[in-house]
Design goal:
By secondary structure, the protein is α/β, with parallel strands linked by helices. The chain has one domain: Metallo-dependent phosphatases (Purple Acid Phosphatase, chain A, domain 2), CATH 3.60.21. It is built from eight helices and 14 strands. The strands form four sheets. Strands 3-2-1-13-14 form a five-stranded mixed beta sheet. Helix 1 packs parallel to helix 2.
Length: 246
């Protein structure tokens, strides 16, 4: 008998995208949802996002940006997004963030993390070079997963929907619910782009002997969060949300 779960990640405070994804999950009759982290970081709707996650009893993990929020709760920074969030967050949300798991084993079959098993700030699948991004070699991935016994590994962080098989294991990145493009300067400047604004998530059906993965793209009213980002002074976020391009 097979089991089915929905996997979401990297919502980044985009409650409009999250609501569309949750509605799609419910229409499919799926009860269990796992959120791989980076839930509220962004100039959008952190409170509404957490309300949806809590109301739907979503299992949530710690993302690198979630950790950054916790670390700078009482320290003024030059990070405009953090300063926006500091004005929004109240005690209940802060406690919710502090209780997030770093990683999670689901029914002994599935291992979940935000970035990699060793760090929520590192890509598990992707390796960034000065002028390109590539999937890590088989040897590199085997080293990353040395201590992971589960057959299915779920990761987020890169916002890129992917499915990679290595040594009888399957690694799934569901992509991002709320932010389809961004740019970063670590370890080298690079862009992550999905080239469309649709919200992404994965459905995983599995048993002891087989699995099936569906990568889902859900249309939603992306112009609403794009306009909110503009209103809050973040034109780059607006472009990323509306176009899926950085």
């Amino acid at each position: 008998m097979s089991n089915t779960i929905a996997v979401i990640s990297d919502i980044h405070g985009n409650s409009w995208a999250l609501e569309a994804v949750i509605n799609d999950i419910h229409k499919r009759g799926i009860k269990k949802i796992i959120n791989l982290g980076d839930s509220i970081y962004g100039p959008l709707d952190p409170i509404g996002t957490i309300d949806i996650l809590v109301d739907n009893e979503v299992i949530s993990l710690l993302g690198n940006e979630d950790r950054i929020i916790i670390e700078h709760l009482h320290t003024k920074t030059n990070n405009r997004t953090l300063e926006y969030l500091r004005k929004c967050l109240h005690t209940i949300i802060i406690e919710w963030l502090k209780e997030l798991f770093f990683d999670y084993n689901y029914e002994d079959n599935i291992y979940c993390c935000h970035g990699s098993p060793s760090s929520c700030s590192e890509y598990l699948l992707e390796k960034v070079y000065p002028n390109s991004i590539a999937i890590k070699s088989s040897n590199e991935l085997e080293q990353e997963l040395t201590n992971i016994n589960q057959k299915i590994i779920l990761c987020g962080h890169s916002h890129m929907p992917k499915l990679v098989e290595i040594n009888k294991k399957i690694i799934v990145n569901p992509g991002s619910v709320g932010l389809q493009a961004y740019q970063d300067d670590q370890p080298f400047f690079h862009k992550m782009e999905n080239f469309s604004p649709h919200a992404r998530y994965s459905v995983i059906m599995y048993s002891n002997h087989s699995f099936k993965v569906n990568q889902i793209a859900v249309p939603y009213e992306y112009k609403i969060p794009a306009l909110i980002a503009i209103k809050n002074g973040f034109s780059d976020w607006s472009r990323w949300i509306e176009s899926g391009r950085a």
